[in-house]
Amino acid sequence: IFDLELNNVGKVYDNGTPAVIDFNLAVAKGEFIAFLGPSGCGKTTTLRMIAGFESISSGNMFIRGERMNDVPPQRRPTSTIFQNYALFPHMTVRRNVGYGLEVKGLAKAEREAKVERILATLDLEDIAERKPDRLSGGQRQRIALARGLVVEPDILLLDEPLGALDANLRKAIQNELKLLQKSLGVTFIFVTHAQSEALALSDRIVVMNQGRVEQVSPPHQLYTRP
Ligand code: ADP
Ligand code: ADP
């Protein structure tokens, strides 16, 4: 049984834009998948359909065998990390990280234990009482990761999460993502328009162009046009 399956998934926006056409993909548990392609090719739309923020116009999507088409985002076993991190500026780091567990209604003791564990994993303990707007881009990125991971999703969805970081920091966070993938066994779906990023991170790369999947290959077999 696959962790994630998209069968002929399509998206036509209300204004008639065919954003995604016949998308097929089966992802194993713990795989790191990159969606790669130029701006406007349909990467974010596909990610948003997996998360449930965007409805699916045609085809079917399954997570661990369960059909997800009509399941609302908060009931899907996914977490999304947005490009701008979308942290709450008025809440401490600890509260930002624990927020998803509050929403889920977990008891305080259980919440605190999970939050402490993920703060430690991502080396955020020293800044746990600070507010995100005074922190660096790399720190905010790690907070966003912690917030996504603390709810223990089966699938972590990342929408161009490294775009705002400088080259050194990007390298550091890339390493961290690979370590998390190995230690937690979480499935990663990572949207990027940067080939170097897809090559560095993924087990398989899904190359998209004008709404269609052009190829699905491991990095060393990636075919690029001359
Ligand atoms: P990206 O290229 O990173 O996906 P965009 O700048 O293309 O981001 O889009 C930013 C936001 O605008 C997204 O929420 C997207 O859904 C929305 N958007 C993009 N294109 C259109 C469009 N043609 N009509 C309406 N909304 C759009
Ligand atoms: P990417 O993430 O690869 O940049 P998107 O999924 O954001 O691509 O966009 C795919 C296509 O859908 C583009 O033509 C974009 O303009 C269009 N689009 C995105 N969001 C919307 C929207 N909310 N309404 C209408 N068209 C959209």
TrEMBL record:
Domain ABC transporter as annotated: residue spans: 4-226
Membrane topology, as annotated: Peripheral membrane protein
GO MF annotation terms: ABC-type transporter activity; ATP binding; ATP hydrolysis activity
Keywords: ATP-binding, Nucleotide-binding, Transport
GO cellular component labels: ATP-binding cassette (ABC) transporter complex
Localization of this protein: Cell inner membrane
Main location: membrane
Protein family: Belongs to the ABC transporter superfamily.
UniProt-recorded name of the protein: ATP-binding cassette domain-containing protein
Whole-protein residues included: 2 to 227 of 367
